């Protein structure tokens, strides 16, 4: 696996849950989750994908970003 | 030069280099002795308490290799073990000094989405099966750990997250190809070798080496509603009482479990559960996740959550959520189970007391909700006899230090006896460990009235008990 230790699947769940709790709508979160094999995911890539989705949807504002 | 090997009778015999070379020339896969460095890359067994060093490890590339392996061992009177996924809690997928027929190279899965069938080789892991079936939004009822072998799981029954909706793993078996003790290959299905088909659905590896399975599949996922809420262990009594009330009215779509565990202070886990004993209520709704999440909501409100992972989740993630609790080859394992016809207050108090008294952080006391589709099959319709108890408690002794073997085995047995005051006496063999017990130790309690018929079928297909490294049924 590219990254992660013994609890990487639970970390996958926690990362996804954090994005949902932050306001990412369910279907967007589902779609991103489906792009990653939970046994072989890369944490940085998942965080990047979730962050990009949050910014694109205006859930969070990033100073200086262009939308 | 020669290689010493254990015989079926328990003695030793010598295999000459010429004999081994001649045998290996027949095979597509390698036949490895303890001196072969390639042995390090063979799939390790789950239970570190039963590592085993076979005299000969045959890495079968297909059914033909299995046939040759069976005939080779049979002709020389050698003791054999069969490894599918190698996840046997009892350590039955390994052997000291004998011949290991290892199917791990045979991990292919082919899905027919039109017929909703999956053809699965005998060495596939549950994660292999889920990976391929979920590509079509389909699933076969598996287990709860993706590292589990499909073969051992299915042959011993198979409880997973879909059990209340679709039954046991063995209940979705449509057919199987089996290499029997005489080296012949048979198909077992509802139309062929029906006695064998009945026996392998719960009767374990007694009847031969299953080289492929065909499963019926069902629409599941790819996203399912999942709830996973971690409560402080101090609240376990109230949490279990609330859970009991919930499951009493739960539809078959909902399958749930109460797990008690202590997670280490691992940076991948939230600090709220670092070294903190907790009770986890895990549940899956096998249906529309938008319907399921509200239905699972009460399970998130049974106490004071430390962590709540509940959310719509890819089914493949749910299937591997418990993987970290059962790392392959790292922990020693001794487990025992009790089925309960009722989860009374007194039973909960006893289970909770054991959960609070766990001697090792990763030792688990788990309570499974059963029922639903499991009970749609009669106790004599398949070899798997337990079809009525609504709960099962599994006491999973898991520890790292070999010096603690006696303490942990003793603790599991003690907890099992105490919880057994509320149990039916039946056991689930896939979750039954072996220390000094014989491999036949629990077959009476597991098979009940089906044991006689199983012994007769064993006598028909394996009269000499060639396949005895399993939860062994003596030929009638």
Any descriptors?
heterodimer; A: 67 residues; mainly alpha; 3 helices; 57% helix; 0% strand; B: 476 residues; alpha+beta; Uridine Diphospho-n-acetylenolpyruvylglucosamine Reductase, domain 2; Uridine Diphospho-n-acetylenolpyruvylglucosamine Reductase, domain 3; Vanillyl-alcohol Oxidase, Chain A, domain 3; 3 domains; eight-stranded antiparallel sheet; five-stranded antiparallel sheet; 24% strand
Structure description:
The complex is a heterodimer of chains A (67) and B (476). Chain A is mostly helical. Chain A contains three helices and no strands. Chain A has one domain (8-56). Chain A is elongated and about 35 Å long. Chain B is an alpha+beta fold. Chain B is globular. The two termini of chain B are 40 Å apart.
- The rough form of chain B would be described as globular
Query: Average pLDDT across residues of chain B?
Result: 96
Strand content of chain A: under 5%
For the record, give the distance between the C-alpha atoms at the N and C termini of chain A, rounded to a whole number.
34 Å
Number of strands of chain B: 21
Structural domain tally of chain B: 3
Number of helices of chain B: 13
Tally the helices of chain A: what do you get?
3
Mean pLDDT of chain A: 83
Q: Beta-sheet strand percentage of chain B?
A: 15-25%
Largest sheet of chain B: 8 strands, antiparallel
Give unreliable regions of chain B as ranges: none
Q: Structural class of chain A, please?
A: mainly alpha
Radius of gyration of chain A: 12 Å
Percent helix of chain A:
55-70%
Domain module tally of chain A: 1
Annotated CATH architecture of the largest domain in chain B: 3-Layer(aba) Sandwich
State the order of secondary-structure elements of chain A, H for helix, E for strand: HHH
Shape of chain A: elongated
Radius of gyration of chain B: 22 Å
């Amino acid at each position: 696996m590219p990254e992660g230790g013994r609890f990487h699947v639970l970390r996958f769940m926690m990362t996804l849950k954090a994005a949902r709790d932050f306001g990412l709508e369910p279907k967007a979160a589902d779609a991103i989750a489906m792009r990653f094999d939970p046994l072989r995911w890369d944490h940085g890539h998942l965080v990047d994908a979730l962050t990009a989705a949050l910014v694109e949807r205006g859930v969070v504002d990033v100073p200086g970003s262009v939308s | 030069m020669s290689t010493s090997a254990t015989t079926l009778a328990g003695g030793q015999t010598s295999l000459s280099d010429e004999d081994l070379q001649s045998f290996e020339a027949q095979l597509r896969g390698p036949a490895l002795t303890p001196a072969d460095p390639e042995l390090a890359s063979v799939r390790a067994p789950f239970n570190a308490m039963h590592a085993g060093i076979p005299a000969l490890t045959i890495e079968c590339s297909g059914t033909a290799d299995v046939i040759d392996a069976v005939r080779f061992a049979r002709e020389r009177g050698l003791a054999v073990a069969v490894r599918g996924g190698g996840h046997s809690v009892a350590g039955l997928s390994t052997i000291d000094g004998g011949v290991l027929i290892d199917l791990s190279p045979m991990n292919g899965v082919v899905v027919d989405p039109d017929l909703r069938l999956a053809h699965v080789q005998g060495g596939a892991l549950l994660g292999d099966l889920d990976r391929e079936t979920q590509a079509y939004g389909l699933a076969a009822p598996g287990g709860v750990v993706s590292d589990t072998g499909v073969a051992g799981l299915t042959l011993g029954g198979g409880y997973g997250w879909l059990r209340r909706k679709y039954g046991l793993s063995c209940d979705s078996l449509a057919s199987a190809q089996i290499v029997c003790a005489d080296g012949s290959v048979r198909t077992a299905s509802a139309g062929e070798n029906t006695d064998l088909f009945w026996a392998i659905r719960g009767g374990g590896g007694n009847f031969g080496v299953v080289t492929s399975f065909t499963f019926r599949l069902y629409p599941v996922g790819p996203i399912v509603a999942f709830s996973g809420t971690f409560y402080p262990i101090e609240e376990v009594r109230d949490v279990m009482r609330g859970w009991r009330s919930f499951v009493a009215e739960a539809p078959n779509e909902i399958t749930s479990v109460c797990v008690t565990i202590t997670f280490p202070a691992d940076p991948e886990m939230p600090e709220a559960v670092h070294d903190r004993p907790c009770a986890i209520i895990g549940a899956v709704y096998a249906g529309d996740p938008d319907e399921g999440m509200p239905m699972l909501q009460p399970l998130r409100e049974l106490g004071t959550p430390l962590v709540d992972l509940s959310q719509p989740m890819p089914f493949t993630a749910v299937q591997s959520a418990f993987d970290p609790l059962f790392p392959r080859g790292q922990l020693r394992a001794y487990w025992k189970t009790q089925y309960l016809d009722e989860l009374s207050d007194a039973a909960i108090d006893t289970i909770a007391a054991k959960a609070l008294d766990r001697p090792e952080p990763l030792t688990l006391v788990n309570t499974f909700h059963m029922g639903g589709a499991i009970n749609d099959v009669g106790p004599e319709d398949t070899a798997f006899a337990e079809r009525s108890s609504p709960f099962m408690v599994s006491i999973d002794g898991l520890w790292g230090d070999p010096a603690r073997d006696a303490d942990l085995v003793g603790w599991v047995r003690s907890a099992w006896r105490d919880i057994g005051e509320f149990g039916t006496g039946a056991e689930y063999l896939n979750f039954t460990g072996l220390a000094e017990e014989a491999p036949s130790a629990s077959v009476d309690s597991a098979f009940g009235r089906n044991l006689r018929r199983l012994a007769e079928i064993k006598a028909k297909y394996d009269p000499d008990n060639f396949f005895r490294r399993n939860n062994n049924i003596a030929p009638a």
